[in-house]
Structures are given as structure tokens and as C-alpha cells.
Design goal:
This protein has 2 domains: 140 residues, 60s Ribosomal Protein L30, Chain: A; 33 residues, Wheat Germ Agglutinin (Isolectin 2), domain 1 (2-Layer Sandwich), CATH 3.30.60. The protein contains 7 helices and 9 strands. The strands form 3 sheets. It has a 5-stranded mixed β-sheet. Helix 1 crosses helix 3 and helix 2 packs across helix 3. The chain is globular, with a radius of gyration of 19 Å. The model has no long low-confidence stretch (mean pLDDT 93). Bound molecules: zinc ion (ZN) (2 copies). One zinc ion binds next to helix 2.
Amino acid sequence: MEYTNFDYNECLETAKAFHGDACSGIKIGSRMAIIGLEAIGIADPKGSDRKDFMVYVESDRCASDAILAITGCHPGKRTLKVLNYGKMAAVFVNLKTGKAVRVSSKNKDGDTVTTREMIDREPRGDDYLTSSDEELFDVKEVAVNIPEGELPGKPARIVTCASCGERVMDMRDVTVDGKFYCVPCAFKEQRYYSEKN
Ligand SMILES: [Zn+2]
Ligand SMILES: [Zn+2]
């Protein structure tokens, strides 16, 4: 694999150091990161270009660690958004030019369901060293509408939840009858935790 601004093996080492090993997901994610950065014209992601782009990843598995490690984007900087659709895909957005590109892993099997036993039988790691970008990935230009509340930088406003009294940043609040609520108070039945008494 030859890329203009990145060396695959160097990137793989960076991703491996962050993740702990170079599993298949790290190999795939490393290539996705390089392809995405090149496609949106980012050559120095951790240096002069670091404030000029964002990445959305569509799973919370290994590949996302590679993308984080190579792009330098991460959630605390608000430059990496993890949308867990369970998909091997990521969208790279150049905030200066507006160009956005989605890189997704091609479905080479076409199986409707691949079980864990099938996955165990066919380790795929080497495909990601020998196959071309075109064989492995779809790369498509997309349009991304990034709400103000999701951009890096200081919060536009902070409100206090009328129910729990906790503060809510980044327009994640919900207005009901003119009052501000946090999401867990507004949609109590959907909370991921329940309180113990
Ligand atoms: Zn892994
Ligand atoms: Zn609340």
C-alpha cells in the first residue's frame, strides 16, 4: 500500500501501541484512518491540521482505537464522535473546506448472518495487509450537518435541569412546557441506569 502522506507500517505501530495489539480491527482501522485523512486533504493530523477536521466512527470496537490513535481525534476534544451503529465505517470531515468522506468496509461475504463460530473459523487479518483499498473499502463523498452543539470549543450555553438540578452542556437538554430537562429526566423510562433506594 502506497499512500501520499502516511506510511502504513508507522501508522499501524501507532495504533498498536495505543490498543495493545495489532488485531484485524486495528489493521482495518489504520487503513481507514489513512484513506479518510488523505481523502479530505489532511496531511498533518496531529500538527498544523489538528483543528481542521473531525471524525465520526460507527462502532466502538478495535478499528475506532486505530482511527483515534492515528488521527489524534478523541472524544474529550470533541473531534471524535462515536455513533455505535455496529458498522465498520467512519466519516472524516474537513471543517475548513467542508469536504466529508465516508470510508466503509465492503461486505465481501454477503452472508445475511455471520455467527461467532464462522468468525472464529476464518481469521481475516491477512486480507488487510495484502488486498487493495478498492477491494476492501468503499469511499464516498458525503454531506455532514454538524450541529453547533457538537463542534469543538467552549459550550454555547449550559442549563440546569428542572428535575435533578444537574447542569447540562452542549444543547443536550430537552425543553418540556418551557422548562429545561436533562435527557435522563425527560425520558426516565429509557435510562440506562436506575436509582437504588
Ligand atoms: Zn483489537
Ligand atoms: Zn435531570
